User: Fold this.
Amino acid sequence: MYLGLDLGTSGVKALLIDAGQTVVGSGHGALDVSRPHPGWSEQDPSHWIRACEDAIAELKASHPRQFAAVKGIGLSGQMHGATLLDAADHVLRPCILWNDTRSHIEAAALDADPRFRALTGNIVFPGFTAPKLAWVKNNEPAIFAKVAKVLLPKDFLRLWATGEHISEMSDSAGTSWLDVGKRRWSLDLLAATSLDESQMPFLVEGTQKAGGLRGELASKWGIEAGIPIAGGAGDNAASACGMGTVGAGHAFVSLGTSGVLFAANASYLPNPASAVHTFCHALPDTWHQMGVILSATDSLNWLSEITGKGAGELTSELGDTLKAPTGVSFLPYLSGERTPHNDSAIRGSFTGLAHESSRAVLTQAVLEGVAFAFRDSLEALKTAGTTLTRVTAIGGGSRSRYWLKAIATALQVPVDIPADGDFGAAFGAARLGLIAATGADPLAVCTAPRTDATVEPDAALAGAYADAYHRYRALYPAIRGVTA
Assistant:
């Protein structure tokens, strides 16, 4: 058996697969996010350990015999989080998360240094790790002075599980400290934030062994001590491993809290001006590009809270047949936007509201707004040298067939729906655990699932969607000056 642990923003998932990659069972531990000030987003790393233990306890209770046969573990997790440790590995402050925008001034200052884009292949976004450390230095200097190690969230779980400070390429590519083409820390970029390589974890590939399970935890969990823990991956690269999106031309669209349009690449293809992320993949000698929108299902969840109706209730009011856009537009910039605007200050809006704008019209506008945000990412990927001919849908929002029809029509590419199964980040992490433990060929393990159905673009609505997207594109510069 092989265990995948995925540290998300809202919880930790533990997933067990057998040697044939059949999912055996799963467990979950819940997490909350602290937002002490506008634009801030934090978590206490000790809560990650508690949630991980809860997830493993649930999984072990439901499958005790199978859990005892675990021979490899893989880790995945939310990216970019700044987990700051002192020389004794004590946490110095709450982790500053991926969707925290407090460091926008520091990010702009680092981005103005041409070395960052040249070496990382990316804009320095406020959500990335390096500007967060610059913010801590500027605003919490006593804490910054004690920083002995900076770990990404999943790698803090690794420290707890193995006692080692190790990370891997895909997650580290989102720090703004990695030379992404050469797959190693950049001493120059670290120095630009008053840090050095001794404060960074040791780097491995996601398929490699990155520590062994501590005896204390092994005894507690009832499994073998020292079993390998794979380098693992950042959550999107792990999802790609779970989906088999590892070869050039393969892509997926993820409808989660945030939204991701992810494309695998056989070579390093940076184009930071497009605001596309260009990162190392979890497999050696592979890279990936992705467009990121910060509020995907979060936008529908926001409307759900406002209306007092569940997200499923809201989408069910639209029925199954895709409708022409109504003229009401929604910009899903509830916490700023990454691709293509790199704008942490912009905020969302409804435009075109009228007396007849019903709850269903607002829901339709939200789904379309997120679909058009993915279209923005598709156009950005094109400018970065990647053209997609089809995508596979994953994430909680992909349960809405209406939403998938809207995305297919907005992107003008077919959207494949995988057969029933769990192909997310925890599954990808378990696959990486299997590879690290057995030495199996990564490409033979990270295969694509069977396609259950394909959602084609609605040809009859192609023109109406093109017009609505044109309106959508015109709204960002129109509201930029009054919302930021």
Summary: The chain has a mean pLDDT of 95.
